[in-house]
Queue: 2 jobs
Job 1
Amino acid sequence: MRVLTQIHAHILTHLHLSLSSVSFTLSKILCFAAYRNILYAKTLLFRIPYPTIFSYNTLMRGFLLQNPSREPILLFKKLVQKKFPKSNTFTMAFVLKCCSILPALEEGKQVHKHVIASGFGGNSFVQTSLLNFYTKCEEVELGRKVFDEMTERNVVAWSAMIGGYARVGMVNEALGLFREMQRGGVEPDEVTMVSVISACAMTGALDLGRWVHKFIDKKGLNNDLMVSTALVNMYAKCGSIEKAKEVFEAMPYKDAKAWSSMIVGFAVHGLAEEALGTFAEMGEAKVEPNHVTLVGVLSACAHGGLVSNGRKYWSSMLESGIEPSMEHYGCMVDLFCRANLVEDAYEFVKTMPIAPNPAIWRTLLVTCRRNKMFEKGEIIAEQLLQLEPLNAENYILLSSLYASGANWVKMSRVRRQMKERGIKVVPGCSSTEINGYVHEFVMGNWSHPEAKDIRELLQEVSERVRGVGHEPWIATVLQNVGDGEKQDTLWEHSERLAIAYGLLKTKAPVVIRVVKNLRVCVDCHEVTKTISKLYGREIVVRDRVRFHKFVNGACSCRDFW
DNA sequence: GTAGGGTTAG
């Protein structure tokens, strides 16, 4: 940098230099500065007498390497205003990348118009940038439109579209496109595979994931750090922690993300000791942990009930200079709450330098409900409803707090409030993979083509479960309906539909694997334990928080979740 | 000098 500024000074003091050679030299300096001192590079741009589009593009790219900022968009706006120099395809690619990182949907749409107007609509780099921009803004359909309009699709375009589907959890579409890509004669590469594996991980599609893994080995795409990390994550998220460990141990080189994936994997499986052991190994391997690693470590402590360990890692994290984020605070509150140390949790929240987010209040509220601390719970719920008055989950929590205290009057008041304010509940949704297709079930929704068979089977299961003395846990059903109807509602919970479908379509010893978007309710947890015993089936449920492995009437979470 | 990728509490 010093040399650059010296040259710069030299130019300024030699006024005899021609305008064009000053422009040229300053542009060169800007080029170097963009990688080292972006703000200096920015001031340079405005000192160049006649900056070319090259300098603008270079500066934009420089900003893209920094923390996310709107600078590339602002530069683009200037270009549009001044009409000179004229943007080229590189400009469009950079500004669209900026819009996808932020993300900035409206600005990106404006850029799209400029792309069409300037006749760059047919450039493959610009098209792929547009496609990626829309999917990053979760506008998958708009992304698909760009994709469909492309006349030539290379591996980058296919991967971007597959990744777009994968990120929003449309696994069937992602995998369908992956197959279509191969039929079209385009060879997938490492990046394609990472997206495909991530789609499997997200939906817990273990069989598909295994198939993709074999494909990767066959094609020799298995020597990539990111591919391996994605595989570790996929096996862990699909409930096969042993296989995750196997892939992880075979990796010749592991960075912080790879270690973190393994540690987080152990954590969600409730394997605290393994998670902490792996963290120790990471230290021995001299790989610096990042903030995600610590989220894994702290959540492992929380799930394993290791309070004093958790405190220890917390203070060593502070010493190591990792700035605690909301997630870290959340882990600590969870650590105390799971151990029923409500006062410690509350004290910890008070010491937080940032305002706790709704999730942290909900953690506290759940603990109050479990410990029947109604007054404290009400106070917390008030804070929560003020902070987030439109989230159905908050009303449901408060309502269940009242239900657990048999305070039916207050409970129906909350339910009424919800109705009056027009709050929509996120429906429970579970999925299970059968023969390479992920079937989705939404609570109370019987639109599945095999709904009739599922209903009949559930009827039979219900009778058998009751036959061994199971009493439905009605307090958790929060609709103002009669007890009989409440039981029916319980039997429509999405995971039961998915489990029933698994019973219908597979035979022991095939494991029934279900992924749920919410946490499992107490009654479903009990019923699933009973089903595992009555039907001699292993059932693995990944809920929003962790794994539950039901074998012979017991769950791996030891009823602690 | 351009486009697509892996880990994150409840």
Note: Residues 19-36 of chain A form the longest helix (18 residues).
Job 2
Amino acid sequence: MTSEDTVEGGKPTLEAVGALAGVSRATVSRVINGYSTVKPEMVEAVNNAVAQLRYVPNRAARSLVRRRTQMIAMVIPERTAEFFADPYFAEVIQGAAMYASSTDHTLTLLIESDADPEKTRRYLTGGNVDGALILSHHSSVPAYVELADAVPMVFGVRPLEPTARQIHVVDVDNVEAAVTATRHLVERGRTHIATIAGPLDTAAGIDRVQGWRSAISDAGLTPGPLEAGNFTPASGGEAMQRLLDGGERIDAVFAASAQMAAGALEVLRTHSIRIPYDIAVASIDNNYFSTSSTPPLTTVDLDTANKGAVLVKTLQRLIDGEEVAPFTAVPTTLVERQSV
Amino acid sequence: MTSEDTVEGGKPTLEAVGALAGVSRATVSRVINGYSTVKPEMVEAVNNAVAQLRYVPNRAARSLVRRRTQMIAMVIPERTAEFFADPYFAEVIQGAAMYASSTDHTLTLLIESDADPEKTRRYLTGGNVDGALILSHHSSVPAYVELADAVPMVFGVRPLEPTARQIHVVDVDNVEAAVTATRHLVERGRTHIATIAGPLDTAAGIDRVQGWRSAISDAGLTPGPLEAGNFTPASGGEAMQRLLDGGERIDAVFAASAQMAAGALEVLRTHSIRIPYDIAVASIDNNYFSTSSTPPLTTVDLDTANKGAVLVKTLQRLIDGEEVAPFTAVPTTLVERQSV
DNA sequence: CTGAAAGCGCTTACAG
DNA sequence: CTGAAAGCGCTTACAG
């Protein structure tokens, strides 16, 4: 190794790579960006020089000339930590960050400030990012929809109301997921299927009830009673209690979340009701709560980490000006365990 | 359709602001960066122009000339989601992201790839970031310590082994937190205090045992039995069962985490042991598990979101070349509820 | 105290 | 196919 290799002035530049490879920096740039017009022998010389110098392109310089920040913001609600018994955000973030790290977009987390909601919007429209992923709660979604043509955006949940302008959303098909879980109950011979629904002012809550209903009527059965919770274990337990108190005959419960199902299971045990013998339970979402409950839950896996990745992919296509469908569905799968 | 460009040709530049304010762009730059040498009337003219044009500095251009990326990486383990019943990471990330958003550093999430651990290190040393926050598990910490003089770094947990080179860590004082919880038990007249410890190959596990011991011996008492778990509710329940099976007299338990305490509480209820009357329980960490258990837990609040903010602050000082203490303690507080 | 000017490290028309 | 050159939008010595 010659002393020329050890550059003193810090990071090697395009210029240095070009000098070593015996070409201009324009050519180095072309090779690095994969232009196919460069002669093979030059490509090789450049690649060798890049490897030898451990050249890494300067993002700021590239950004400046391309007029792209190469950054993507993921907008999440401030109060997230309080609901973090629900691993949802953590999983999306992780999936998105992992996928982003394999591309040349950097993912940055933007926490919505409850005190100053405008701040987030100003950031997004201030040219700080090439695009944004919106994972906010329903209530703040409409405000972002307005910005959707100032900066490319992909939403992680469908808005409750139809939107004036065309937007892009990536999510699981909640109706289908509920159909899958409920149909499984039907196939196991259950005929009196109640539901513990999610909040009925959220898309997930509404869609999952719809799926439950449609699977039941497809089977020629009558829907059992419905009680709603707020996705937490405690609310699931309370809903289960109300279902029991209602006195209607029930041989199965479809719970709109594993957390609520876990709470329901506890209540059922208290009453010495055998699961699945007396009452079978199927739910949606596969996480800590579905695996550590007694018995473990038969549930629909939403592959939330994959949803994170698909969100990023979809946004990148939007940024690149490609045609993107208004809705991209992330596939889900039924996981059979002992509760059915 | 892409022709909504009625806004005077894209983002305003320094040049445009200068033109409107009647000064050179050098002066605008000085005002924006708060140099005190500028005449008040010019400062005002510039500020007005900035407001009027809604000027936002171009980060890439600034980055390029300052030779700073203005980015900070937060390195977290890949397997995080699996342990996400523990809200720890979510809270640190949230605290860090919120604080960072008030500064001109952008926080980016770097998930360690289990498949290619070198990748993360290459990213960090490739000039992509001005500094890094390391929240990895103990096992991978030593590899990062090696990089600590290639790029500024702050660690979220103290390394188990003494390190060759000087590093900087920000964390709660785990010994002190355990002393606080245990002393509270002592003050309420408990004399036979057992502990459900964390994993004894982690700094938090070790330090909390030490705090428990020292509070007990300070009180002139003898330590009760010790059983270790792995911070999950299930492991806490099992440890509690072993404590009971051991047959030693116990009138209090110090659990090294709220999650383990929650598991212990369930086991105690199964045995119809009254809490706190028969056995008082104090723990560490204030989250979903401490508030939703029956009864709610008396526990030490670790203020994890604040830890996230302090991590960022400390790193920024390091980046700015300031003198930083090797250890920065994040303050904790005792929260009294019904379990003691 | 202020401005003209020289870059920071890239990309990309434009010639050849 | 390749290179010389003109910027991208800032900051900061350097004069005045």
Note: Residues 131 and 151 of chain B are 6 Å apart (CA to CA).
